[in-house]
Design goal:
The chain has 105 residues and is mostly helical. The chain has a domain of 39 residues. Helix content is 27%, strand content 0%. It is built from two helices and no strands. The longest helix has 21 residues. It is elongated, with a radius of gyration of 26 Å. The two termini are 45 Å apart.
């Protein structure tokens, strides 16, 4: 129904393309982007620090003998507050066993 209808009616295809461009321009304005709309084939390789979060990633080789021993995880400190005086979050309950490795990716 849809593709055949668009291919048989050039006027309808032109109107659909114009509507898609208008929707893209409105979305760019809502997101706070400039009024210039890039073609769909253009790729944005840069990222603004104000609009994107940062991810810290540490890669280690796979352990040959399994997970690290429990004593290596026992000394993780508990944080009661921060240096600037802000208190740390204090959940009413936890959904894991303290000292247990939660996961590995």
């Amino acid at each position: 129904f849809g593709p055949k209808l668009l291919s048989s009616s050039p006027d309808l295809a032109d109107r659909a393309a114009a509507a898609a461009r208008a929707a893209s321009a409105m979305l760019a304005l809502v997101r706070g982007a400039s009024q210039h709309v890039r073609p769909a084939s253009a790729r944005a390789l840069g990222a603004s620090a104000a609009r994107h979060g940062k991810v810290l990633l540490a890669l280690y080789p796979d352990p040959e003998q399994g997970y690290p021993p429990k004593y290596a995880r026992d000394s993780v400190p508990t944080i009661a507050g921060y240096a600037d005086g802000q208190t740390a979050p204090s959940p009413s309950a936890i959904d894991f066993t303290p000292g247990e490795l939660l996961g590995c990716v």
